[in-house]
Design a protein that fits this description.
Radius of gyration of chain B: 21 Å
Shape of chain B: globular
Distance between the termini of chain A: 65 Å
Order of helices and strands of chain A: HEEEEEEEEEEE
Number of strands of chain B: 3
Shape of chain A: elongated
Strand order of the largest sheet of chain B: 1-2-3
Helix content of chain B: over 70%
Number of strands of chain A: 11
Strand content of chain B: under 5%
Radius of gyration of chain A: 24 Å
Largest interface: A-B, 27 and 39 residues
Structural class of chain B: mainly alpha
Number of domains of chain B: 1
Oligomer: heterodimer
Strand order of the largest sheet of chain A: 2-1-11-10-7-8
Number of helices of chain A: 1
Structural class of chain A: alpha+beta
Chain lengths: 143, 411
């Protein structure tokens, strides 16, 4: 009885161990794919031009722009930056029919597009540089 | 939704494996069933379930390494229990302690930030541990590497391994000031070679190889001076040949590696029994409880790979190798995505320890390279080995989380 069970189960054990390894490899593979293609290739994103290690706060290298992206000091912004030069709600980028518009939300120190201070809503395209305080972002539209 | 489902799959497989193998163990010792069998069954499942659950809650870092190690641990403890129920129960106690130390190490790495600035302390600690071994050490299986403190035997060299990684990482990645001393890297090399020499004197060849491997690896990656790498390799070649000519115990290892068959009754007994066991098992093994792993001396310890291959088949053996490969791969991946230089090197060093150690012992029992006594991390029986391996894993887990950028010295 025991012998039979033991002989039967040895195949099951090998099967379980390999299935375990396979699932882990698959999970790792899916993770890698997310990192490589998920963020960058599809759609538009903002890329930070400053060297990240020169900044006193945590920021990512790039931020995808979907329907709306806001930047400011307050918590509910898409990009929160704890910098005294940046207003609570500084600017936003909105997408309207495949075009992107930058709007200053009444910030005290202003938002600069390619070196010029903006006053109203401005249409932005690939390669435009947005500057707020010390920070510079380049807008990239991959699609 | 879908993500969550995928994430739970390996955990479920792990439990399925444990429950099936434990019920088989129940049947195996049906007549002499004792309370310890229940303890080990319930204990193992609960321990692994809760530590996985807890880790998922507290750590945002890598979530694969602990799962992989849980699988290795489960395979190991079931085999150890099947060889000797007493040792199995002890191993369960060590595992519990080891996992507790895993979390302790994880929190220590997460909340304490000055690890990279302790170069002199690591240096002193390593020498202190060596001194302790030489003064209080006792000889087992040909090596002086055990000391006994109030009834518990510990192997200081296992701890020194981790200290060495911290020392190298602190030197290359933490403090700038020690690297600026003239010829600092030469001094570092002298220090590491003195460690290796001491290990040779203790006849702990396996650990000496690990020290050499980790040092060479980190030096190759981070050293600015290419000549030192050549010097290191040259010294190793000369040292290896000298060791072979001077030390008798080195020669024995090489002889039994080249041809163990004339010495089958004495020197070559272990390795030939190991080969017999592996070939007896074939692809799928004889089945748990149906082989004779006790024919191999130390089958629960250094030779656990042969015992597992005999009863669970070489496919399980290959599975173990693949699990180690995945573990090392994840370790490298952690090192690559870690931006803090010190912790990047720590992660790299620890992954190298796991990789080199499993390579040396699996290669040894398969007669691919000369056999040196080492434990297979997480699988073999052995208190110090299990606990220090889990500490190393805890450090790796801590290093997998995002940290401040740049070296600690730049802060």
């Amino acid at each position: 009885m025991f012998d039979l069970l033991s002989i039967g189960l040895k195949y099951v054990f090998v099967f379980i161990i390999y299935l375990f390894i396979f699932t882990i490899i698959r999970m790792i593979y899916l993770d890698i794919r997310n990192v490589d293609y998920g963020n960058l290739d599809s759609g538009a994103y903002l890329k930070l031009l400053n060297r990240i290690d020169s900044l006193p706060y945590n920021l990512s290298d790039s931020y995808p722009v979907e329907a709306e992206l806001t930047l400011g000091r307050q918590k509910d912004n898409t990009i929160q930056i704890k910098d005294p030069y940046i207003s609570k709600r500084h600017f936003r980028i909105i997408k309207d029919e495949e075009e992107f518009f930058l709007e200053d939300l009444g910030s005290s120190n202003g938002t600069y597009l390619n070196g010029e201070k903006i006053h109203d809503v401005v249409r932005i395209g690939k390669g435009d540089i947005i500057k707020v305080g010390e920070l510079e972002f380049i807008f990239i539209n991959g699609a | 939704m879908n993500e969550g489902l995928i994430n739970k799959a390996p955990r479920k497989l792990l439990f399925l494996f444990e429950i099936l193998s434990l019920s088989l163990i129940f049947l195996y010792s049906w007549e002499g069933i004792q309370t310890e069998t229940y303890v080990i069954a319930v204990g193992l499942v609960l321990l692994i379930y809760f530590s996985n659950y807890l880790l998922g809650r507290i750590s945002k870092g890598d979530n694969y390494i602990f799962l992989i190690v849980c699988m290795l641990v489960s395979i190991g403890i079931i085999m150890i229990y099947r060889i000797s129920p007493d040792l199995g129960l002890k191993q369960l106690m060590w595992l519990t302690f080891g996992i507790a130390m895993f979390f302790a190490a994880y929190f220590a790495v997460r909340y304490i930030s000055f690890w990279g600035r302790l170069t002199p302390i690591y240096l002193l600690a390593s020498y202190a541990l060596f001194a302790l071994t030489l003064i209080m050490g006792s000889r087992t299986h040909g090596a002086i590497n055990w000391i006994t403190i109030s009834g518990v035997s510990v192997q200081p060299a296992e701890i020194t391994k981790i200290v060495l990684v911290f020392l190298l990482a602190a030197f290359y990645g933490g403090d700038e000031k020690y690297r600026k001393i003239k010829n600092a890297e030469v001094y570092l090399m002298i220090v590491v070679y003195s460690f290796i020499g001491l290990l040779f004197l203790q006849r702990d060849l396996g650990t000496a190889l690990i020290f050499f491997g980790v040092f060479t690896g980190l030096q190759y990656i981070y050293s600015q001076d290419r000549r030192l790498i050549w010097a290191n390799l040259g010294l190793a070649t000369v040292g290896g040949i000298a060791g072979y000519l001077i030390f008798d115990h080195v020669r024995v290892r090489v002889t039994t590696w080249l041809n163990p068959w004339p010495h089958i009754n004495d020197k070559g007994y272990q390795i030939t029994q190991s080969l017999f066991a592996i070939s007896e098992g074939g692809f799928f093994g004889t089945g748990l409880g149906r082989g004779n792993p006790s024919f191999i001396p130390l089958s629960y310890n250094d030779f656990i790979f042969s015992a597992i291959s005999e009863e669970m088949g070489i496919f399980t053996g290959i599975g173990i190798i693949m699990l180690f490969m995945l573990l090392v791969y994840r370790g490298f991946k952690i090192a690559l995505s870690q931006e803090n230089q010190f912790f990047r090197m720590v992660a790299l060093g620890i992954s190298m320890i796991f990789g080199i150690q499993s390579f040396i012992i699996i290669g040894g029992v398969l007669k691919v390279i000369p056999l040196t006594g080492l434990t297979l991390p997480f699988v073999s029986y052995g208190g110090t080995s299990v606990v220090t391996s889990f500490i190393a894993l805890g450090i790796l887990q801590g290093a997998s989380e995002k940290r401040g950028r740049g070296g600690i010295g730049n802060e």
